[in-house]
Amino acid sequence: MLGMKIIVAAFLAFIQLVHSHTVLLPSYGRRCFYEKLTKGDELSVSFQFGDRSPTSTQQQSGDFILYGASHNEVLKNMYDVEHGEATITAPYTGRYQYCFLNERSSIDTKDVTFNVYGVVYMDVDDPNNDSLDASVRKLSKLVKEVKNEQDYIVIRERTHRNTAESTNDRVKWWSIFQLIVVVANSLFQIYYLKRFFEVTSYV
Question: What sections of the protein cross the membrane (predicted)?
Answer without folding.
Answer: 173-193
